[in-house]
């Protein structure tokens, strides 16, 4: 149904009021975490879009603290799963155990039964454990024995990967990586930010406690408002152009990329670009999507959905280079 200018104006006013909750959350998390606003904003985009986030960065960049602080800010249940080569699927989702007193099998729920899951170093666990987690991510439910249990909302999985130590790891297959809405690459803090981090951690002061500044009900309501944000057909076509340029670059005057790309973004890339762009508009208190919303999140949505050929590796072309060329070449509405 087409929206009139008056509909969009009213929606904009509603969004400006509702989006204040993201300001409260970001401000509260900033009391504990220094220098990672980009990571926090991507976590919020995943949360508002009902999508999971894959984080890649060296140890010590506050990945665990960020998602734990986000959970505390809305008083949600948080679980951390340290993935190791000896982990079993039952260690993640739970299992049936025999109760000798009642002579019955009872369900022991695993750490997956939480609102926020930190899957630490997901590539350390074998494929069957990765599959158990990714099935729960996709279906939002877990089967133990003969019973199926629905997972609570909101349900956000933050999986981390260490990019420098690949010995003894199990690389996630492309089909499973595709289930993550965003792949966010985290960099080191600046010199001034790290100076502040030293002071906070060396002076022996008691760490700041995160207070609840939003509720789960507010988050669920905000998710619905994100989906209601207006997206013009020109923006939809812009998203399609970006994704199709990863599949058929020669049709977008990007002939040089054709031998470098083995496969492009799936339809999930188009869906997630649209949802993440709407969430970004919500965070910026707008009831409508602009091209900058799409451009700002396109790297995080596309970087794990484009496969490069051996020729690209031989020419030292990485996926960031490919995405930048596509963004710069595709016409902006």
Question: How is this fold's topology laid out?
Answer:
Elements: H1 5-18, H2 20-30, H3 37-49, E1 53-56, H4 63-73, E2 78-82, H5 89-93, E3 94-99, E4 104-109, E5 116-120, H6 127-139, E6 141-144, E7 147-150, E8 156-161, H7 174-177, E9 182-185, H8 191-202, H9 216-228, H10 233-247, E10 261-263, H11 267-283, H12 291-302, E11 307-308, H13 310-314, H14 319-329
Parallel strand pairs: 1-8, 1-9, 2-5, 5-8
Antiparallel strand pairs: 3-4, 6-7, 10-11
Alpha-carbon Rg, integer:
21 Å
Sheet with the most strands: spatial strand order: 2-5-8-1-9
| CATH homologous superfamily heading of the largest domain | P-loop containing nucleotide triphosphate hydrolases
Helix content: 40-55%
The largest pleated sheet is described as: 5 strands, parallel
Note the run of SSEs as H and E.
HHHEHEHEEEHEEEHEHHHEHHEHH
The CATH topology of the largest domain, please? Answer: Rossmann fold
Find the structural class using helix and strand composition: alpha/beta
Give the count of helical stretches. Answer: 14
The CATH class assignment of the largest domain is Alpha Beta
Straight-line N-to-C gap: 21 Å
- Please count the beta strands (DSSP E, at least 2 residues each): 11
Integer count of domains: 2
Q: Report low-confidence residues grouped into runs of 5 or more.
A: none
The average pLDDT value, as a whole number, equals 87
What is the 3D shape? globular
């Amino acid at each position: 149904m087409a929206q009139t200018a008056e509909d969009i104006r009213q929606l904009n006013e509603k969004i400006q009021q509702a989006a204040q909750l993201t300001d409260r959350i970001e401000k509260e998390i900033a009391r504990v975490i220094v220098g990672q606003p980009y990571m926090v904003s991507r976590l919020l985009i995943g949360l508002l879009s009902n999508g999971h986030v894959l984080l890649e960065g060296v140890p010590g960049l506050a990945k665990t603290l960020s998602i734990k602080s986000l959970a505390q800010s809305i008083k949600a249940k948080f679980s951390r799963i340290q993935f190791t080569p000896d982990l079993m699927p039952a260690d993640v989702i739970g299992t049936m155990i025999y109760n000798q007193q009642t002579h019955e099998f009872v369900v022991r729920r695993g750490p997956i039964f939480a609102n926020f899951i930190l899957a630490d170093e997901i590539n350390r666990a074998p494929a069957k454990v990765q599959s158990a987690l990714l099935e729960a991510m996709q279906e939002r439910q877990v089967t133990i024995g003969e019973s199926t249990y629905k997972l609570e909302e909101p349900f956000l999985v933050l999986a981390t990967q260490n990019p420098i130590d690949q010995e003894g790891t199990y690389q996630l297959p492309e089909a499973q990586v595709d289930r993550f809405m965003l792949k966010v690459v985290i960099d080191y803090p600046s010199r001034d930010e790290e100076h502040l981090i030293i002071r906070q951690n060396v002076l022996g002061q008691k760490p700041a406690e995160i207070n609840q500044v939003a509720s789960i009900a507010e988050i669920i309501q905000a998710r619905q408002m994100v989906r209601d944000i207006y997206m013009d057909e020109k923006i939809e076509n812009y998203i399609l152009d970006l994704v199709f340029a990863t599949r058929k670059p020669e049709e977008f005057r990007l002939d040089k990329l054709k031998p470098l790309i083995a496969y492009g973004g799936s339809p999930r890339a188009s869906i997630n670009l649209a949802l993440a762009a709407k969430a970004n508009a919500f965070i910026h208190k707008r009831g409508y999507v602009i091209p900058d919303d799409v451009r700002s999140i396109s790297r995080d949505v596309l970087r794990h959905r484009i496969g490069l050929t051996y020729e690209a590796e031989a020419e030292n072309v990485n996926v960031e280079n490919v995405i930048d060329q596509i963004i710069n070449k595709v016409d902006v509405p």
